[in-house]
Write a structure and sequence with these properties.
Helix content: 10-25%
Shape: elongated
Distance between the termini: 82 Å
Structural class: alpha+beta
Strand order of the largest sheet: 1-2-5
Strand content: 25-35%
Order of helices and strands: HEEEEE
Number of helices: 1
Length: 104
């Protein structure tokens, strides 16, 4: 039984390949005058926080910072801004005898 006979799986694949162009033609002729599509573009921007200048005042430190976020956390305290960009943040001086370690 080795001749030109096709096995059942090959026969099914051949039938599918024979009728596939008809299904594509039927779908592509619907609405040939217009086309609609949905495109979804996702841009991931990592958070950026940069200290531009630090100035010591009598009450503590004033930091001129640039950030692309609406809020930042310094020393466990959250500072909120109206929009991303440059802002001045006042951090009060720690009490005498206290050690403050921060990454600024």
């Amino acid at each position: 039984m080795t001749g030109n006979r096709l096995r059942p799986a090959h026969a099914a694949l051949a039938a599918l390949m024979a009728f596939a162009p008809l299904a594509c033609v039927a779908e592509s002729t619907v609405g040939t005058g217009s086309a609609t599509a949905r495109v979804r573009l996702v841009v991931v921007v990592p958070p950026v926080f940069q200290v531009l200048r630090a100035t010591r005042t009598a009450e503590g430190l004033d930091y001129l910072v640039w950030t692309n976020m609406r809020s930042i956390t310094i020393g466990g305290r959250e500072y909120r801004f109206a929009r991303p960009g440059e802002h001045t943040v006042h951090v009060p001086e720690a009490p005498v005898g206290a050690w403050v370690v921060h990454g600024l």
